[in-house]
Design brief:
The structure is a single chain. With about 425 residues, the chain is of the alpha+beta class. The chain contains 15 helices and 18 strands. It has 4 domains: about 90 residues, PRC-barrel domain (SH3 type barrels), CATH 2.30.30.240; about 60 residues, no CATH class; about 110 residues, MgtE N-terminal fold, CATH 1.25.60; about 110 residues, CBS-domain (Roll), CATH 3.10.580.10. The longest helix is centred in the middle third of the chain and has 11 residues. The radius of gyration is 26 Å and the shape is globular.
Length: about 425
């Protein structure tokens, strides 16, 4: 960040002006948004809360800040005018951290937070690194003192203290999305991670596992009782369960498959037959499938399922019976945009898009990506040599394979508030 000092005390940012690159003032800083992390890890600074004209408070990501110097903030361009809404994993420094009572680890004494300082790392992230604290003197004539300590020299800030029970942790994060809870779990110690995972319901744990890096998935699954592990695998999407099982030793994976219900294990076994970088290895075996005599109303009712990803809800796959994969002959797809324009009583067979050729399960990742991009699709049907529908590859399945292996370890910049 050009023009930025190495250390910025956050209380000094309150009320300073925010300018765009042309020198026009767009608002004033009212707070700083950070995400507290587990244990003594320093918080990551997400951005600023800026009050723009009209008293509207909006979010300005740190990635849009080019300068924090000379009593002003300069941004890279237009500020997103969507009203700021604090999320459960976010903390406001000025509103929530200052004046807090915390404990010095060195001597156990209680001190008051007067300010905190943030610093920019070599990776251009901003972290809260220092805490300016004060404590009163003892006796009538003893003056108090104020001093600066490292973030990890005090306790009382942490998102989750190591002594906090799993039940309390679960209550704290009950409303978090699976991806957000997965991020919290990833930063816990291995012992705490397993404790919390064991306390989650099967469905909730399955959703969270799907969002975790593979190493965390394997670690958590390996600490569960085998019967419980099989139940969690059953609750996962078949493609995600197959990906996880493929990371286990063959004997262990086979034991878990045998413990799963046959109707749940069958699709997973079929997916394990394909290489992970092919359409067969990436596809889900549970897209929305209807017979040709189904109505538009039935199709729309099916895609309203809140558990469907947006990509899978974007189209309905029409086949001859049976309607479970592998299905009868694949007939075509019905796009939701087309379904919304038709009368509810119309048959889906009358609105099929038959012009797009499905792909085979051995189609490599590069060709799947090219197909989706060429035809502006968010999903593509996968069929065998006899035109039986095997599943569908969605754009999020492709992204999982295109992004770096450690992409789940980070938090996307500026996504918290639609920046």
């Amino acid at each position: 960040m050009s023009g930025a000092p190495t250390r910025v005390f956050i209380a000094r940012l309150a009320g300073i002006a925010v300018f765009d690159p042309t020198g026009d003032q767009v608002g004033k800083v009212r707070d700083v948004v950070v995400t507290l992390r587990i244990g003594r890890q320093p918080p990551r600074v997400l951005g600023l809360v800026v009050e723009v004209f009209g008293r509207r408070r909006v979010f300005l990501p740190m990635t849009r800040v080019t300068s924090l110097d000379a009593g002003q903030v300069i941004t890279t361009g237009l500020v997103n005018m969507r009203r700021f809404e604090q999320r459960p994993t976010e903390t406001l420094v000025l509103s929530e951290l200052l004046d807090r009572k915390v404990t010095l680890i060195e001597d156990g004494s209680t001190v008051t937070v007067e300010d905190v300082a943030m610093e920019e790392t070599r990776a251009r992230d901003w972290l809260v690194s220092k805490v300016f604290v004060s404590r009163g003197g003892k006796g009538l004539r003893r003056r108090g003192e104020a001093f600066i300590v490292d973030w990890d020299a005090v306790t009382g800030f942490s998102l989750v203290e190591e002594g906090q029970g799993a039940a309390n942790l679960l209550a704290t994060f009950d409303k978090l999305r699976p991806a957000d809870l997965a991020h919290v779990l990833h930063e816990l110690s291995p012992k705490r991670r397993v404790e919390v995972a064991a306390a989650l319901a099967d469905e909730r744990l399955a959703d969270v596992l799907e969002e975790l890096p593979e190493d965390d998935q394997v670690e958590i699954l390996g600490k569960l009782e085998e019967e419980r592990a099989a139940d969690v695998l059953e609750a996962m999407d078949p493609d995600d369960a197959a990906d996880l099982l493929s990371e286990l030793p063959t004997e262990e994976a086979e034991k878990l498959l045998e413990l799963m219900e046959p109707e749940e294990a069958g699709p997973v076994r079929r997916l394990l037959d394909y290489s992970e970088d092919t359409a067969g290895g990436m596809m889900t075996t549970e897209p929305v499938i209807l017979g040709p005599d189904a109505t538009v109303a039935e199709a729309l009712a099916r895609v309203r399922n809140p558990e469907l990803s947006p990509a899978l809800a974007a189209m309905v796959y029409v086949t001859r019976p049976p309607l479970e994969t592998p299905t009868g002959k694949f007939l075509g797809i019905a796009h939701i945009q087309r379904l919304l324009r038709e009368r509810p009583s119309e048959l889906v067979s009358g609105v099929l898009d038959t012009g797009l050729e499905p792909i085979g399960p051995e189609t490599p990742l590069s060709q799947v990506t090219l197909y989706l991009a060429t035809y502006n699709l968010v999903a593509v049907p996968v069929v065998d040599e006899a035109d039986h529908l095997l599943g569908a590859v969605s754009v999020d399945d492709v992204l999982d394979h295109l992004l770096p292996e450690d992409w789940r370890h980070g938090t996307p910049e500026g996504l918290s508030h639609g920046a």
